[in-house]
Amino acid sequence: MKKVILFVIIVLLQACSKPKGKGSDTDILNLAIRDKIPTFDPSSAYDVVSSTVMYQTYEQLYEYHYLKRPFALKPLLAKSMPKIENNGKRYIINIQKNVPYHSDPSLKESRFLIAQDFINQIKRLAFKPNKSNGWWLFDGKIKGLNEFREKAGSDFQKYINLEVSGLKTRGDHTLIIDLLEPYPQMIYALSMSFTSPLPIESIIYYKNNLSKNIIGTGPFKLESLKPNHPLTLTKFKKYNLSSYPKKGDRRSHSKKLLIDAGKPLPLLNKINFHIIKKHDSRWNAFINKKIDIISLSKEHLKIALNKFGELKSNLKEKKINLQISPTLTFWWLSFNMKDPLLGKNKDLRKAITYAIDRDKFIDLSTNKTGQKANSIYPPGIPGYSPSKTISINYDIELSKKLLKQAGYPNGKGLPVLQYDTRGDTELTKKQAEYIKNQMKKIGINVKVVVNSFTTFLKKVREGSLQLWMGGWSMDYPDAENLLQLLYSKNSPPGPNATFYNNKNFDNSFKKFKKVYSIQEKKELMESMEEEVLKDLPWFMLYYQRTYTLFHSNIQNYRYSDIIPNIYKYLRIKKSNR
Question: For residue 399, how far is the Cα from the chain centroid?
């Protein structure tokens, strides 16, 4: 009888731990991705969909601390932070020992990480046939790497045999990188998936085609990749490299994100990535508990939030949580500084900016979820100041005075300006229409040209735009990543789409790129920002924020667009029913 009772209890417990319709049990996370993974090759993968999967399976020398803001790097595959010598031009990095790779046909059993594996991958970034999206990180930075790129050409055997003078090992667990000049952003490059280590055996076995294979050291390994099925990652049972953080910032304490402090990672057994392309389908999957987390699209903000920007009560009743997170994505109005009309007339640029109501533009663009920009730097990067202000505020009368001062009273004599959209979505068209209507109020006529995003990018590279919406998502939390958009030598086809040219800014930027001192960097950031605000090549609009919903059984969740390897920290709370 006791055995029967025990059996019944076990069955009931199992039933309670698997809610009907959820599509997951207590240790399986279900997520939605918007499309198929285009490639698993760390030299090429750069899109959001690929990164969502890649960072759970591949690891790098350094990672961001999950519970600290501003963002801070810490060792991952590296044993410690790098020892920097030779005036910032030599990095000596000690590598963790006994780190196993996932099992793969290309590897002998129990293949462990060695320093040479990092060199293999950096060489792959330079190898021309790979057409790497990460080459820009090291182009002109490491001794001998560009020479290797030219000598190897498209010859795979030369890729294998040729060495790079600036990439060396000292034994199996010390990596030495010699630079041509100081490169403080190197540490960020070494935290990106582009620099994930790869065994030479795997590169040779797959003939340098790693688009369909993952040979990583991460907490999860690729389990299943079948058509019309979820992409499945499972816990790598030999993983022993990371534990849950024992310390965090004020927010992590207030949100009780340190309950699992010190526990070995990962805390999940499996992740299912469901390909769900449409907004409505993702929403329905979330509401029906088929997926556990969803980032709200603009279309669903009104469904989820009340007029105060809070989660609606019907969703709270479903035990759904809302998290509002700042991002490192931000937007501005761009002026072509080489344009004979706009570029030469600062009063005209100012007249345009004073005619734009940023609050209304943010409401239009984000359903009131964007944060009005107060600086050219976004929150979350070292050197950003919340007390900084942008003095330009909506003022139609002042705008008209400035237009007259610019030589065009009520717009008389001013040629039609051209505003190019950065895509052909409904949002980009509405933004363009708003700009056009606001300009009409002060007498400026604007012609709107609707482009596909591909056409827009082509015009950016050609430098043929006059007035347009600029935007940037930072690759790493260092001001250099956005300041390079204003450096004169990066003018089109480079990223300085505005053709901004200021000697003081350029001189400060050249210093900034080589500076390691935090205080000196802050001082240079302030001086460069003052130049930009004075010259007005950009009119800062807003910082993007992410609104994420997740079911209450998801523990330890803290979104960040700069920390992609977050899923190893998550835990699914067992049901008490």
Answer: 36
